[in-house]
Design brief:
alpha/beta, 6-stranded parallel sheet, single chain, elongated, about 40% helix, 9 strands, binds adenosine-5-diphosphoribose
Length: about 250
């Protein structure tokens, strides 16, 4: 039976109110309304830039410079971005005790900026960078200054390769965060899946774990995904509008 938009909103609010353990799982789509492009939508990043894998970044200077050239262009989007109504709505729901955690694939830090306290970052963050040899940490504004000079960033102390604290394709996932996300997916009874195409593993397995464990899923996404069949309710629309309308 096809529910109207208002009927879906009412049902979603009811599910959240009746839930004992709700969590949110987010992707790049939740931040597009903050001016940060996502990856796979028309005009998305992977249509403009080539994916540089972890192995390439380590062993291929040209690929490394290509990566930093992309980063240099994106950093301005990331550093100037502000949370939108979707981030704010999730932080509000957490403050009111309706949401326990936000599991995110995003590196932009906008959930924390909106006030969310329990945020699990599966793909790292854009707050800094690290030397792969001596593990010296660099803040993003230091990196920005270095990028003004050149693209082959080397550690001031040991000359080692500097890598941003984001997770590359081909790089092992941060173990602590992945285990936490899996544990939460095993325990939750409701998961809001927001702004993600669910095409990247193992992150995309988190909603599947929750579904397999009997949790209900609510999808909020502009486009269809291969996993919409798992959802109790699917909203094809703007994350900030739908979450604003759901607000309890
Ligand atoms: N509201 C709701 N959904 C939106 C909005 C919006 N305002 N804007 C975009 N979307 C949807 C798109 O339709 C798309 O299905 O969000 C989804 C974003 O999907 P991707 O671009 O594939 O991003 P994501 O799923 O987060 O990518 C996962 O892939 O490239 C890697 O490491 C990167 O963490 C990222 C991972």
């Amino acid at each position: 039976m096809n529910l109207t938009y208002q009927e879906k909103i009412k049902k979603a609010s009811q599910l959240i109110k009746n839930s004992n353990y709700t969590v949110a799982f987010t992707g790049a789509g939740i931040s597009t309304e903050s001016g940060i492009p996502d990856f796979r939508s028309p005009g998305g990043l992977w249509q403009r830039f080539r994916i540089v894998t972890y192995q390439e970044f380590i062993y291929d200077r040209q690929a490394r410079e290509e990566f930093w050239r992309m980063k240099k262009e994106l950093i301005h989007h990331l550093t100037n971005a502000k949370p939108n109504n979707a981030h704010i709505a999730l932080a509000e729901l957490e403050k009111k005790g309706f949401i326990k955690h936000v599991i995110t694939q995003n590196i932009d830090g906008l959930h924390q900026m909106a006030g969310s306290k329990s945020v699990i970052e599966l793909h790292g963050n854009q707050r800094g960078a690290i030397c792969l040899d001596c593990e010296k940490l660099y803040k993003m504004d230091e990196i920005l200054k270095m990028l003004e000079e050149q693209l082959n960033l080397r550690c001031y102390d040991c000359g080692g390769i500097i890598k941003p604290t984001v997770v590359f394709f081909g790089e092992p996932m941060p173990e602590k965060e992945l285990i936490m996300a899996q544990q939460i997916a095993n325990q939750c009874d409701l998961m809001l899946v927001i702004g993600t195409s669910l095409q990247v593993e193992p992150a995309a397995s988190i909603p599947r774990i929750a579904h397999t464990r009997g949790a209900k899923l609510i999808f909020i996404n502009k486009a269809e995904t291969d996993w919409d069949w798992m959802a109790e309710i699917v909203f094809y629309g703007s994350a900030s509008q739908v979450l604003k309308d759901i607000a309890i």
